[in-house]
Amino acid sequence: MSCGEPHETDCSEVLDHLYEFLDSEMPDVDRDKFQQHFRECSPCLEKYGLEQAVKKLVKRCCGHDDVPTDLRAKVMGRIDLIRSGQAVPEHDVTAGGATPAAPQES
Fold first, then answer.
1. Is the Cβ–Cβ distance between 10 and 41 less than 8 Å?
2. Looking at the record, which segments are called Disordered (predicted)?
3. CA within 20 to 30 Å of 42's CA: 14, 27, 34, 95, which one?
């Protein structure tokens, strides 16, 4: 997605790091660049607004459930792997090597 106009911060960079912006997980200097980009680029601003609305909806609908500590640790571990660029296994390696059950026929 791009408005076709040149920007100091490219649209692809903004969209690749949109959740870091939404979650306030980026340095202030980068946040300032993104805010400037949103002022200049209506397609990215629209995408930002949509993702912000989805995030608020999920928080409202699912934000009251207690998350088991082990599940939180597994999710955070996977996020750390992804951020470090390491391969993420497709199956849960923390479950003692268990393989998923085969689907049962009806």
1. no
2. 86-106
3. 27
Q: Is the dihedral of CA 8, 11, 12, 18 positive or negative?
A: positive
pLDDT in tens, 40-86: 999 999 999 999 999 898 888 876 777 788 998 998 888 888 888 77
Distance CA 52, CA 67 (A): 22
Q: Which two tokens stand for residue 19?
A: 């959740």
Task: Give which of 79, 87, 15 is closest to 44, Cα–Cα.
Answer: 15
Question: Using CA of residue 36, residue 21, residue 60, residue 41, what is the dihedral sign?
Answer: positive
Cα 29 to Cα 24, 34, 44, 57: the distances in Å are 12, 9, 19, 28
Angle between helices 42-62 and 28-40 (to 10 degrees): 120
92 pLDDT above the threshold of 60: no
Domain ranges of the chain: 11-87
